[in-house]
Amino acid sequence: MNSLNRLKNNRLQRFEAISLFILCFFGKSFGQAGDVYAADQVLGFADYLYDICEFRRAANEYLRYEFLTEKSPQIQSRIGLCFFRDGQYQKAIGCWRDLILLSREPDSLFKQAWFHHSYAYFRLRQLEKALTPFEDRHCEYGKLSNDESWMVLKIATNICLFRWQNAEIIFRDYDPSAQWEDIHILFQKYMTNPKKYRQRSPFKGALLSAFLPGSGKVYANRTIDGILTVMVLGAASLNAYRGFERDGMQSIRGWIFGGISTVFYFGNIYGSAVAVRVYNRQLQDQVYHDIQVQIQKAVGY
Question: Distance between alpha carbon 260 and the CA centroid of its chain, in Å?
Fold first, then answer.
């Protein structure tokens, strides 16, 4: 009886072992096929989300696809585009930085990554960083010297920084394609009359107002403010003069209007310096906005 039970147990153990082997072997094969099928579905869904402009969700799906398969430059570039078009510029910069550092040749993906890396900094208005290369032997400006989109971005950034000489050097050798024709016309407008778009000196504005009240405001393109300054300061000074002329140094009217004149005089000097700074900022904002609109029109986002 014990022998019979022992035999049954042995047969049962063998059956369990064979079943476990078959399950593990075929289960692994089916699992791998399932993973590939799932990865393809994830990629298709990510592409669909990208096409309907659901960029944040698309980025998450592309990241899932990378987790199920392996990293590829094409998917890395698409993740960067998703972050960029969703307004997450810092994350986009990180994606393209990784892609640039992994690149060994200046292929189309490398050039696209370089352009978008700098374009993201341009959109953040970190203009110095938009022109700063990596300290890496694979990331040299020479690889991009003939890339049109990169040349456009360099000209645009130098103009926004009011570095006219640098912009003109690049612009001289630039022959635009149809894609960038509109921004080339805008560049020509700036290059034809750069003095109109030069920033002005706050110190010069203050100095002008010190010698001739109101002239600093005119220098800051605020002619009406300058005229009002002259009228108010002139009226206060005239009243002070008449008060002292009539009552001498004991004139209350003279001291009151004299004090008002003094405050307005020094306020006019300080206000002129501030007005020039505001003018410079508005000019920079306008130039940046006009250029950004044209780049966005050419690139599509």
Answer: 46
The 3-state DSSP class for residue 100 equals helix
For residue 177, count CB atoms less than 10 angstroms from its CB and return exposed for 0-12, middle for 13-18, buried for 19 or more: exposed
* 235/13: higher pLDDT: 235
CA 211-215-218 angle, to 5 degrees, is 165
23-124 adopts what CATH topology? 1.25.40
Judged on CB neighbours under 10 Å (0-12, 13-18, 19+), 158 is buried
Residue for token digits 């990169």? 150
Q: 61 CB contacts (<8 Å, ≥6 apart)?
A: 42, 43, 45, 46, 49
- Pinpoint the alpha helices (H) of the chain: 2-51, 55-68, 73-85, 89-102, 108-123, 127-130, 148-160, 164-172, 181-192, 202-211, 215-219, 223-247, 252-299
Contacts 24+ apart (CB under 8 A), 78-86: 78/46, 78/50, 80/113, 80/116, 81/50, 81/55, 81/116, 82/50, 82/55, 82/56, 82/58, 83/55, 83/59, 84/116, 84/119, 84/120, 84/301, 85/53, 85/55, 85/301, 86/55, 86/56, 86/59
Helix (H, G, I), strand (E, B) or coil at 135: coil
pLDDT tens-digit readout, 160-216: 999 988 888 888 888 888 888 899 899 989 988 888 888 899 999 999 999 988 899
Q: Which residues of 239-251 are buried (b: 16+ CB within 10 A; e: fewer)?
A: bbeebbeeeeeeb
Q: What is the pTM of this model?
A: 0.74
Q: Is 233 exposed, middle or buried (0-12, 13-18, 19+ CB in 10 A)?
A: buried
Residue 141 structure tokens: 């400006």
